[in-house]
Amino acid sequence: MSRFFLPGPTEVGHEVLAAMTRPMIGHRGSEMSEILAGCDPVLRAIFRTERPVYVASSSATGLMEGAVRNGVRRRALALTNGAFSERFRDLVADCGREVETYEVDWGEAHEPEELHRRLRAGGFDAVTFAHSETSTGVLNPLRDLAEAVRTAEGETGDEILLLVDGVTSVGGSLVEMDAWGLDFLLTGSQKAMALPPGLAFGAASERMMARAATLTGRGQYFDLLEYDRYWRKHQTPTTPALSLVYALAEQARRIDAEGVEARAARHDAMRERCLRWAAERGERWGLSAYAPAGRRSPTVTTLAVDGPVAAPEIVARLKRAGWTIGGGYGKLRDTTIRIGHMGDHTVEGLDALLAATEEVLG
Ligand SMILES: *Cc1c(COP(=O)(O)O)cnc(C)c1O
Known about the structure:
L-serine-glyoxylate transaminase activity, alanine-glyoxylate transaminase activity, seven-stranded mixed beta sheet, Aspartate Aminotransferase, domain 2, 2 domains, alpha/beta, five-stranded mixed beta sheet, aminotransferase
């Protein structure tokens, strides 16, 4: 059973790793197209969309940049509440666009009413944020935030694209790209998809593709129009990370066999298990949920540590006992720990980790 509970990269199944040892094939041949065509319906089921899901050979940050280059015309509102949403914000400026920040403290979520108020002032053509902020374990209320964007669009007449970092939500929860009206949704292979690092997946709405066609400076590597042109042949614009695509094909089969709804339910159960453990057993070690109730990620639980054993020491003791969890991220390093319960992990596996944690805490 896995003892590896980092919030990314996550444990990868043996069959998936084994698939990567297959010999190389030509990436413009029919065999390659068949492999990608086989992955496509599963990826669209995971993204809850009828739109194409593009496969990029990069880490997730690559498609965050792609989102900006293809989706922000002049000025974006960036919602920040942790390290990854801050990275998204910084990327907007790096790509030469104006950006205004709607910042809330690390550990907090954004409010749809406040988002609406800020957008109503006008002048924004895109919004960026992280659905599940992996640095804090906060889950933003995506459906309500999306609705606030749509309402503001109606009032201002601005076309405001919603660009969502779903890196630790897609594949671990039901992120309804079509039903919630998201314009760009992206994830990386090494989080809830339980693949090795190195691939990123992204889907764009039709209106985002229409906007992209009018933007200059989309660059080469993340030009969504090129991705779309090649997607129609079930290919990628440049040589894909072939071994990772083999792994994807295998993992797509496994995800399809479980079903995306069952997969989401399993993640919800792991979150609840982790939170209940902290509530019932954590007090004597000063452990408590860091994110506010109702705003807790299904894939990563951040626990505030204010007790006899300091946060980095908990991580170190588990490490010595053969278990890996995530330390606090950045400025939360000394005061929190993070348990990644995503990908192929199970409630039973998580129980074993929690028991081991009690043991090392003494
Ligand atoms: C891990 C992560 C990223 C960055 O992913 P890379 O694959 O390292 O580029 C971005 N956003 C979130 C929410 C993440 O968890």
